[in-house]
Design goal:
heterodimer; A: alpha/beta; 5 helices; B: alpha/beta; Nucleotidyltransferase, domain 5; 6-stranded mixed beta sheet; 7 strands
Chain lengths: 206, 157
């Protein structure tokens, strides 16, 4: 009997199979990139020193259990919060010539509001029954107020946006001198420090 | 002479598709490597709130905490009040520290001090549970947290 050769397997449909798999993986892939609002919690300290903060340097944002805002004891809509926070931080109420004088502030210089951005403290108080959605929305607005001011100052001093450069550096695609840019970012952070305190909420619905 | 003229006549030669499978396989392998199949299945509802003032999360140094109402299929046995999930199971506030310490040890040693806690909390949850988690984190001295959000803004509709 003559030795018959094994017939070659037809590989023509290989591409189809591979395409099928490829499409499956293409559809299921979610290149997850989580992002969010970063916060630093205060360290736990037993002996809480009473820090004396003047009332004018405090911006108290209170969110009650019905998700309503109370800013310095006056009700406010969420959409007005950002501008109110900017006005407060940027006020620069300390008179010219004193050590606290803020030379870059463009606010109203109202002596009844904050002295300078370094002294201005935003205190966020919430109820245990406040919804998380509202809580994040308020945080977002407050962070936005800080970012807006930081952008304004970095735009004035260096000609770029603070948030843009910060994102570019963290993603590793900043073109130019990274160290110098980081130094400048720190400079802006020092000018307008993010002083946002989150108090522990009240035990029960008020 | 006939030999040469024969070649000239005729249409364009067909493009060989023999290397097509190779190209496709290459793409396939790329996506297979890049794909991360969810390692922990969610047992809580997880609609994240919207925010636009965000920072990117560094995955290599973060541990995840989920919180929200139990998903529909777990509701019969666990009720509808908000629960905390770490890894693959529900945890309560008291056990949080053990679960978190365990998770932290899974990270690369040089990054364990820089650990960042990513909170994935459902938007319908009360803030009370988040405060409990934060209090526990302060006691554990894991002070860097990040509230994971989805792009957008609550203000525009």
């Amino acid at each position: 009997m003559a030795r018959r050769e094994v017939p070659e397997v037809n590989a023509g449909s290989m591409a189809d199979i591979a395409f099928l798999l490829l499409i499956f993986f293409l559809v299921t892939t979610t290149i997850e990139k989580d992002s969010g609002i970063a916060r630093q919690l205060p360290p736990l300290e037993e002996n809480d020193d009473e820090v004396n903060i003047r009332e004018r340097n405090l911006f108290i944002v209170n969110v009650n259990k019905n998700d309503q805002l109370l800013v310095n004891e006056k009700p406010m809509e969420l959409k007005d919060l950002r501008q109110a926070a900017i006005d407060f931080i940027d006020n620069g109420g300390a008179p010219n010539g004193t050590a606290d004088y803020c030379d870059f502030c463009q606010g109203l210089r109202d002596p009844k509001s904050s002295d300078n951005p370094d002294k201005a403290i935003i205190s966020l108080q919430n109820d245990r029954l406040t919804s998380y959605k509202m809580y994040i929305a308020v945080q977002n607005e407050l962070v936005a107020a800080y970012n807006e001011l930081r952008n304004r100052e970095s735009q004035r001093l260096f000609g770029w946006d603070y948030t843009e450069v910060k994102n570019a550096i963290s993603e590793g695609n900043y073109r130019g001198n990274v160290e110098q840019a980081e130094e400048r970012l720190r400079e802006i952070q020092k000018m307008i420090p993010q002083k946002l305190s989150e108090a522990e909420p009240k035990r029960k619905g008020s | 002479m006939a030999k040469f003229t024969k070649k000239k006549s005729g249409d364009l030669p067909a493009i060989s598709t023999a290397s097509l499978p190779d190209i496709v396989f290459m793409l396939l392998f790329f996506f297979m490597v890049v794909t991360v199949l969810r390692d922990s299945n969610l047992m809580v509802e997880n609609t994240l709130p919207k925010a636009d003032q965000v920072e990117k999360l560094m995955k290599d140094r973060s541990v995840f905490i989920y919180a929200g109402k139990p998903s529909e299929r777990y509701r019969e046995s666990f009720g509808t009040s908000s629960k905390i999930q770490i890894g693959d199971k529900y945890t309560d506030v008291k056990n949080l520290r053990y679960a978190l310490t365990e998770l932290r040890q899974k990270l690369r040693p040089e990054l364990q001090d820089k650990v960042m806690v990513a909170l994935k909390v459902d938007e319908e949850t009360n803030t009370g549970i988040v405060s409990d988690i934060k209090q526990e984190l302060r006691e554990l001295n894991m002070l860097k947290i990040i509230y994971i959000t989805t792009p957008g803004n609550e203000l525009d509709f």
